[in-house]
Design a protein that fits this description.
The chain is α+β, with helices and mostly antiparallel strands and 697 residues long. Helix content is 49%, strand content 21%.
């Protein structure tokens, strides 16, 4: 119960403090509004007073023009005009023109004649004479001195037609507006500005001393100015008295402090001509400061007691709230840490490559699976995957861009690329963007190396095919072998009965052709049987030199007919291998026949044997047509051949690969289309094979 009362007491004290300060703030706003209204009225009154001063200034110039016109009628214009320009301050030149616009009297007061002789002055004088007809007071746009003259002077032409003569006075704008001088600020920016809008909507900004800073500083269509300044110019363009409040941006644009400002404006009548308008812009800094100080004093006086009483309650409340916030933050931090630890452990343990990239596709981190394969982070994809080609990295970059554009995961299966070595790997790539990107992670690139799995799948499929083909081959060979034997025997008997001489030659050639074709079919049947059931290996020590010479001698006639050169390079120092000579002879006969068939006339086939570690490496190199990339994965499949129908069974290379495998060796194929093919046969040396056999037994 005491806790509840204490809580209610604290709430009541806080409410009292809030109420007191709320009332003080409302009083502050009211005080500011009243002070701003009083200040606006003062600015409007000041603008009307300055407009009256400027009106008197204009009437004074009109009076001088009328006096000069009366003197022109009486013939004493030169005396009057010289008296007007004698001091050289307000009037810089006085002219009299006749009704045709010709200058009849010109009295300059400028130190030199450069301005008086300028085209700008002559053009402005002609315009003033034209507009002054009918007794209308005309004021031209501000004129500037020539660029090479020292010091800017803002000059205007005042013109009036009197008694058939047009009187033109060149007025110094700085002297003309000095009656509008305002007090300057002691330091920093001025507190007040004075603006004049003439009859052509040209704006003149006056410094506090009354000097025109720029004769055409702003125009009504200047889109660089804030909207409040343009609104002020529009109100001045109505040529009616009034006042507006300007924003901080508008006050700064007019050269005042960046605070609220007030502008009062009033029209200046030019009688027959379009009126002018004058505005006084003043910073409301002192108004705001005065109201704020008064309101804060009132608030401090009324709220100090309540503040002291409620201080303890506020502190307790803040501490309670802080403790609840800390407890919630601790819970969230623990949950986040657990989730992060779980995610990191999963990423570190899975046998899949994970690359984190930022918004610029820079690699920020990689998981241990890729680190073990020398893939590093902290750079671009090119630096992280140096073994990959430009095309392979381009595919990954396109995959990432596609995923980021769709904002969902995108995959690319069966991508062949190089990860940590020059070996092509089959990789499934996944680009996964984050819905809420982190500063260092915008998306993930997941690389799943499926090479071994795909190879195992292909081997299983190939094994099933081989088993099926083997069963079929054994049956076919058994069914065809007996009839072929009978045909061959009958053909031999008939050949023996053919009489000698020319009469029996056609019969002898026909029977020989039949026997040759039967031998060819028998060879195919024997290959089918060898493929269907592996023959036992009768291993002996065989020297590579003897093995290659035997295979070369068997095919010497075929190479001669194909016009292909055969080169055997097997040094006597090459160690012997433990193998079945007949089966290995079949291997090299098949390889040499394929090489000869692949070479055009004039081609070259080279066979070498050399020791490579604990093995002997045989290389059969030809400069033939080569094997295309799409055929490389199928050349070892049974019955696959690129030869024409009837020229090959497609079993030779398959049987050769099986024989090498049964001898504990390996067969490798490298080929470039148009440049040739290299086939390597790696077989263990005789001593190594003997040691392995002894260890197994």
């Amino acid at each position: 119960m005491d806790v509840r009362r204490a809580r209610k007491l604290k709430i009541a004290m806080i409410a009292a403090v809030v109420l007191v300060f709320g009332l003080a703030y409302v009083d502050l706003l009211r005080e500011q509004e009243r002070a701003l209204e009083d200040f606006t009225a003062e600015q409007k009154t000041l603008a009307v007073a300055l407009a009256s001063t400027l009106q008197s200034r204009v009437e004074s110039v009109r009076h001088d023009l009328q006096v000069a016109g009366a003197a022109a009628r009486s013939g004493s214009a030169e005396t009057v005009l010289r008296s007007l320009v004698a001091d050289g301050k307000l009037y810089r030149e006085a002219d009299v023109l006749d009704s045709s616009g010709r200058v009849t009297l010109e009295i300059p007061a400028l130190a030199d004649r450069r301005m008086a002789d300028s085209h700008a002055l002559r053009d402005a004088r002609a315009i003033a004479v034209r507009d002054a007809r009918g007794g209308r007071l005309t004021v031209t746009a501000p004129l500037r001195r020539l660029p090479n003259d020292a010091g800017p002077e803002h000059l205007r032409i005042f013109a009036l037609e009197v008694g058939g003569h047009t009187i033109v006075l060149l007025v110094d704008g700085d002297r003309f507006f000095e009656a509008l001088s305002l007090p300057a600020a002691a330091e920093g920016r001025p507190l007040m500005r004075c603006l004049v809008l003439d009859d052509e909507h040209r704006w003149i900004e006056l410094e506090p001393a009354g000097v025109a800073a720029s004769a055409d500083s702003w125009r009504l269509d200047d889109d660089r100015l804030p909207a409040d300044v343009l609104h002020l110019f529009e109100r001045m363009g109505t040529f009616a008295p009034g006042a507006v409040t300007l924003s901080r941006e508008a006050a700064e644009a007019l050269g005042l402090d960046r605070r609220l400002a007030v502008a009062g404006f009033a029209p200046v009548s030019l009688a027959e001509s379009r009126p002018w308008s004058i505005a006084v812009v003043a910073s409301a800094k002192r108004v705001r400061d005065r109201a704020r100080v008064g309101a804060w004093r009132l608030g401090a006086a009324t709220g100090v007691a309540s503040l002291l009483v409620a201080l303890f309650g506020v502190i307790v409340t803040r501490q309670q709230r802080r403790s609840l916030q800390l407890a919630e933050q601790l819970r969230l931090a623990s949950t986040t840490a657990a989730l992060r630890e779980r995610s990191e452990k999963i990423v570190e343990a899975i046998p899949i490559g994970v690359i984190a990239l930022d918004a610029a596709l820079k690699v920020t981190s990689v998981n241990p699976y890729l680190l073990d394969r020398h893939v590093v982070g902290g750079g671009t994809l090119e630096q992280a995957l140096p073994k990959a080609t430009v095309e392979e990295r381009a595919v990954l970059s396109a995959l990432l861009e596609d995923a980021r554009a769709r904002r969902r995961p995108v995959e690319r299966a069966g991508l062949r690329m190089r990860l940590a070595s020059d070996e092509l790997r089959e990789v499934d790539a996944y680009a996964i963007p984050l819905d809420r990107p982190l500063p260092d992670t915008d998306c993930f690139l997941v690389l799943h190396d499926r090479t071994e799995m795909r190879m195992l799948e292909r081997n299983l499929v190939r094994a099933e095919k081989l088993a099926t083909i083997g069963t079929l081959a054994a049956g076919v060979a058994h069914e065809i072998g007996t009839p072929l034997g009978i045909i061959s025997g009958r053909a031999e008997q008939l050949l023996q009965r053919v009489p000698e001489g020319e009469a029996g030659e056609p019969m002898r050639k026909g029977l020989s052709s039949v026997m040759a074709q039967v031998d060819k079919v028998s060879t195919t049947i024997r290959q089918l049987l060898d493929f269907a059931r592996a023959r036992p290996i009768e291993a002996i020590a065989v020297t590579p030199t003897h093995l290659l010479e035997t295979a070369g001698a068997l095919l010497e006639h075929r190479f001669h007919q194909a016009k292909v050169a055969l080169e055997l390079d097997a040094k006597a120092a090459v160690p012997a291998i433990l193998a079945d000579p007949g089966q290995l002879e079949q291997v090299f006969v098949n390889l040499l026949m394929n090489a000869a068939d692949a070479c055009p006339p004039g081609g070259h086939v080279k066979v070498t044997a050399a020791q490579r570690g604990s093995r002997v490496c045989f290389e059969v190199v030809d400069d033939g047509c080569g094997i295309s990339a799409e055929h490389m994965t199928a050349v070892l499949d049974p019955f696959f051949t690129t030869k024409k129908r009837g020229q090959g069974t497609g079993l030779g290379l398959t049987i050769a690969a099986d024989i090498v495998k049964n001898h504990g060796g390996a067969l490798e194929i490298d080929s470039v289309v148009g440049r040739g093919t290299t086939i390597r046969v790696l077989l263990p040396m005789a001593k190594e094979a003997h040691d392995r056999t002894s260890a197994g037994s």
